[in-house]
Amino acid sequence: MAAVKKRQSNIELLRIVTMMMIIMLHLLDKGEVLPWFGDMHSFNDYFSWYVEALCIISVNVYVFISGYFLLDSKFTFKKLFFIVAQVWFYSVGIFLLCYFTGGIPAEDINIYSLIMMFLPVLGNHYWFATTYVLLMLVFPFLNTFIKAIDEKRHRRLIIMLVIIFSLWVTVLPITTPVVDKWGMDLPWFIVLYFIASYMKKYPDRLKGKAWGYLLTYALVSTTPLIFARVLIGINNRFGKLGGYSKLWYQYNVIPVVIMSIAFFVFFLKIDIKNKVISNIINFVARATFGVYLIHEHLYVRFRWTSLFDPKKYFDKPYWILRAIGIVIIMFVVCASIDIVRIYLFKLLFDNPLCNKLWSKFAKIEDKINGQD
């Protein structure tokens, strides 16, 4: 999500793919396509939950991408400002557009909604954006620690963190040792950051062929649905466990972690040599965060799914093709809007006057980055 000086087209392509996966997750969820596990009968019922499993890795992978690049990056107030300003731009801009075009009834406006719109990071308008900004504040301190430890300690730390924040909730969700927000919180983002930084520091440990990682991802993707069906069967016989049937569709459970790593490494092993294709990928990838901020805005997230109404064609054999088409349309429309926003921000904030202002923070940034 953060801008990088040197773009790797394979990772930028992954950035695009994972954002499309996020749109698919929102289409399935807010489009009310996913049936309850105990009510599944048709092929489409099962396949929809398999698609959900395929896409559930998207948030983890997005954090992997950030950790992979941020390990060799430095904290700057300019970078932080651009992220917060982008979130604010869409939160406030879309709110005002909807309000003045009559899309928001006056009675729906209250103190809570105004705080959420005008203070979107503090008000948690977008949970991912809020958590990502927090990660941006702590990553230089994580980098200092990561660069100070050897591979063995790094690996042991990851194992311990995965046991605490992933294995425990995967096996015994009733007795989690920490507050569990299903991977939608800063502690889990930090765990993912440590994993991504390990893959960046020790690429020789990522052995094997690309297709092997892709196959691992595809096979493990079947386990959340299998687990859900088994748990529903047990619940029908003994009761009490039905509420945990969706457990393995969380970001921080072991199967999803394995899938996320496999999918990320698969793209690491892709080599895009065509410069024209690389340039196109790099150009489009800059707009992916904007795609998220637009289509997941509070006053947009249910409207676009209602507009396409995926339930109308869910019983058709070609529903997945139409769903993919909707995802592509949403991505192209939102990315096109954000590309305009990128050039607007560049004009407003990336100029000699603003750069002179950013330079005044250099000493503070050096202290944050451990260079004092």
Core attributes:
globular; 68% helix; mainly alpha; 372 residues
Short description:
With 372 residues, this protein is an all-alpha fold. The protein has one domain.
Structure description:
It contains 17 helices and no strands. The protein has 372 residues and is mainly alpha-helical. It has one domain. The relative contact order is 0.16.
Cα end-to-end separation: 28 Å
User: Biggest sheet: strands, sense, closure?
Assistant: none
Q: Helicity, in percent?
A: 55-70%
- Strand fraction equals under 5%
Query: How are helices and strands ordered from N to C?
Result: HHHHHHHHHHHHHHHHH
The dominant shape is: globular
How many domains make up the coordinates?
A: 1
**In terms of quaternary structure, what is this?**
single chain
**Low-confidence spans:** none
Q: Could you tell me the radius of gyration in angstroms?
A: 21 Å
* Count of runs of 4 or more consecutive helical residues: 17
